[in-house]
Q: What sequence folds into this?
C-alpha cells in the first residue's frame, strides 16, 4: 500500500466524483458507454497515485488479498449504476476463453422431449443470462414515495453461502470454494440443469453439445454443461478483481472480505435509507444489493423468465436438512438402544416367568 | 412330532431365505421400505425421472422435485440407520450364538457401511458452516453413487443365485 493511501479495506472505486446524471436507459447507448468508460478511465488514471488500487486496497492489514481463501463478497450500490454495460463487456472479454465451444451436430436426444439448448449462434445476446453472457443488466422504472427511479441492476450468480446448486448437484460438479465463490466444473458437469431448477434465481444456463456427457451416454443422459459467473476465480486468485468490479466506471460494485462488505452494506443502507437484498435470502449470499427502493417494489416491475432473475423473498429451504442431519447422527444409536431394551425386556420377562432365554427365543418365534 | 419340531425347520427356512433380522416382523416391513425409498430418491437425485416420463405418472410428480427427493432421501436414511442399529443390537445380544452372517450378508453389510459412511460425509458437507475441497466432495459423491450401484447389483445377483439370506444358523 502506498503512503498516504486510505486504509479503507474494501476494494472500491467510489472515490470518483459521480457527477453523471441518471439516464432513463443507457443500455444500448454504445457511444455513451464508450464515452463514460473513457472519461472514467482517464479520471482513474489521473487519480491513480492518490487512490488505493483495488488489489492494493485488498492487501491492507485488515483485509488480505482478494486471492486468498477467506470468504469474499460483492456490494452493489444500485443508486450509482447508470446501466452503461461496461461490466458486461468486461465480463465477456475476460471470460470468453471459458465459454463453450460445442460440437455440431448435437447427438439426437432420447426421449424426443429432451431439447437441445444452443446459444452458440447467439453469443452476442446480453439482455439476459446465457452460457455466453454471465452478467446482465436489468432496467427498471419505479415510483416510490412520489419519486420516480430509473434503476439499472447488474445480475449474475449470487454466490450463496449454502448453495442449493452445489448441495444438490448429484455429480459433484457444482461446488463452493473457500472464498465463497460458487463454481461449476465444466469438465465434470453433465448439463442435467438441476442446479438451475433449484437455484432461487434460475441463474445457471445450459449449452448443449459440449462436455463430459458426449463421452458417456450422449443420447440418454446429460445435455451439455451449465455455465454461470465464477467471479473470475482464476484472476482473483492472482490478486486481481473480478472483471465487472474492475471495469465499472461508477464504483457501483465493491469487492472485499465478506464481513467488511456486510458491514459496509448495512451502513450504506442506513445512511441512504436504502434496502438490502442478498444478506438473508437463501440463508445468506455473497452478493449484497443496496437499493433506494424496496425490492418488493422492484419485483413488481421485473418479470421473471428464463435468463431474467427477479428479487423474490427466498427462505433458507435447506433448513429441514439441518434437523434431519441431527436425526441421522442419532438414528443408529437410538435404534441400538431400542433393540437392546427390547431384548433386555424379553430376557427379564423370561426370567420372571422362569423360562430359559432359549425358550424365550422360541416363544418369540412362535409370535411370527 | 412335537410342535417345536414342526415349527423349527419352517422358521429357519423362511428367515434365512428372506430376512436380515429373523425374529422381528416390523423390520421386514421397515427395512425394505427404507431401502426402496432410498433407492428411488437416490436415483431421483439425477434428473432422470422427468426426462423419462416417470414424473408424469399421476402421483409421482414429486420424483422430479429435487428438494422433496433430497429430504426424503435423508428421511429414508434416518429410518434405515435406526433399523440397522436395532438389528445390530438384537444380533449382538440375542442372535450371535445361534446365527451368523452369510458371505452374501458380509458383502452387503460392507457395502452398506460404505454407503452410510459416504452418506454421512455428504451430509456433513451439506451443513452451511462446513467446507470441503471440491475434489473431496466429488470423490464422496462418486463413491456413494458407485457403492449404491454395487449394492443394488450385488443384492440382485445374490437373490438370483439363491443366496439372498443375510443370516444362516451357526454351525
A:
Amino acid at each position: 500500500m502506498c503512503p498516504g493511501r486510505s486504509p479503507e479495506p474494501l476494494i472500491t472505486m467510489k472515490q470518483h466524483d459521480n457527477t453523471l446524471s441518471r439516464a432513463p436507459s443507457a443500455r444500448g447507448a454504445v457511444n455513451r458507454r464508450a464515452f463514460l468508460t473513457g472519461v472514467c478511465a482517464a479520471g482513474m488514471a489521473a487519480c491513480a497515485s492518490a487512490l488505493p488500487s483495488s488489489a492494493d486496497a485488498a492487501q491492507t492489514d485488515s483485509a488480505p488479498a482478494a486471492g486468498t481463501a477467506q470468504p469474499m463478497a460483492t456490494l452493489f450500490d444500485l443508486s450509482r449504476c447508470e446501466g452503461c454495460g461496461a461490466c458486461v463487456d468486461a465480463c465477456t472479454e475476460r471470460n470468453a476463453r471459458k465459454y463453450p465451444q460445442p460440437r455440431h451436430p448435437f447427438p439426437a436426444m432420447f426421449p424426443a422431449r429432451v431439447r437441445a439448448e444452443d446459444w452458440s449462434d447467439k453469443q452476442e445476446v446480453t439482455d439476459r443470462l446465457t452460457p455466453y453472457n454471465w452478467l446482465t443488466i436489468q432496467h427498471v422504472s419505479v415510483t416510490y414515495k412520489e419519486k420516480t427511479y430509473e434503476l439499472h441492476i447488474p445480475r449474475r450468480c449470487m454466490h450463496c453461502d449454502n448453495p442449493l446448486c452445489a448441495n444438490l448437484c448429484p455429480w459433484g460438479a457444482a461446488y463452493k470454494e473457500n472464498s465463497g465463490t460458487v463454481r461449476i466444473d465444466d469438465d465434470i458437469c453433465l448439463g442435467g440443469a438441476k442446479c438451475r431448477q433449484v437455484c432461487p434465481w434460475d441463474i445457471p444456463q445450459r449449452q448443449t453439445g459440449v462436455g463430459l456427457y458426449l463421452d458417456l451416454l450422449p443420447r440418454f443422459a446429460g445435455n451439455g454443461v451449465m455455465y454461470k459467473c465464477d467471479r473470475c476465480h482464476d484472476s482473483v486468485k492472482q490478486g486481481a478483481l473480478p472483471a465487472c468490479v474492475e471495469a465499472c466506471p461508477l464504483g457501483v460494485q465493491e469487492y472485499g472480505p465478506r464481513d467488511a462488505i456486510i458491514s459496509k452494506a448495512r451502513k450504506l443502507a442506513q445512511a441512504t435509507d436504502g434496502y438490502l437484498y442478498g444478506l438473508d435470502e437463501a440463508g445468506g449470499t455473497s452478493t449484497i444489493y443496496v437499493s433506494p427502493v424496496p425490492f418488493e417494489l422492484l419485483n413488481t416491475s421485473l418479470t421473471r423468465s428464463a435468463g431474467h432473475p427477479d428479487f423474490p423473498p427466498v427462505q433458507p429451504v435447506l433448513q429441514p436438512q439441518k434437523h434431519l442431519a441431527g436425526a441421522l447422527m442419532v438414528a443408529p444409536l437410538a435404534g441400538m438402544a431400542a433393540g437392546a431394551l427390547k431384548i433386555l425386556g424379553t430376557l427379564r420377562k423370561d426370567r420372571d416367568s422362569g423360562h430359559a432365554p432359549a425358550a424365550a427365543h422360541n416363544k418369540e418365534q412362535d409370535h411370527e | 412330532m412335537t410342535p417345536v419340531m414342526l415349527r423349527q425347520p419352517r422358521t429357519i427356512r423362511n428367515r434365512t431365505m428372506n430376512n436380515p433380522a429373523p425374529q422381528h416382523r416390523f423390520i421386514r416391513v421397515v427395512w425394505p421400505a427404507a431401502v426402496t425409498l432410498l433407492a428411488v430418491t437416490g436415483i431421483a437425485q439425477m434428473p432422470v425421472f422427468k426426462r423419462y416420463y416417470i414424473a408424469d405418472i399421476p402421483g409421482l410428480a414429486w420424483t422430479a422435485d429435487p428438494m422433496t427427493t433430497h429430504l426424503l432421501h435423508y428421511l429414508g436414511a434416518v429410518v434405515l440407520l435406526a433399523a440397522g442399529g436395532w438389528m445390530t443390537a438384537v444380533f449382538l445380544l440375542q442372535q450371535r450364538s445361534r446365527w451368523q452372517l452369510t458371505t452374501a450378508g458380509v458383502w452387503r453389510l460392507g457395502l452398506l457401511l460404505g454407503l452410510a459412511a459416504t452418506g454421512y460425509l455428504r451430509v456433513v458437507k451439506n451443513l452451511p458452516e462446513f467446507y470441503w475441497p471440491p475434489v473431496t466432495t466429488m470423490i464422496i459423491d462418486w463413491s456413494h453413487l458407485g457403492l449404491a450401484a454395487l449394492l443394488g447389483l450385488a443384492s440382485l445377483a445374490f437373490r438370483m443365485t439363491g443366496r439372498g439370506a443375510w443370516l444362516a444358523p451357526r454351525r
The CA atoms of residues 80 and 207 of chain A lie 33 Å apart. Chain A touches chain B through 56 residues (CB under 8 Å). Chain A has two domains: 30-317, 325-362.
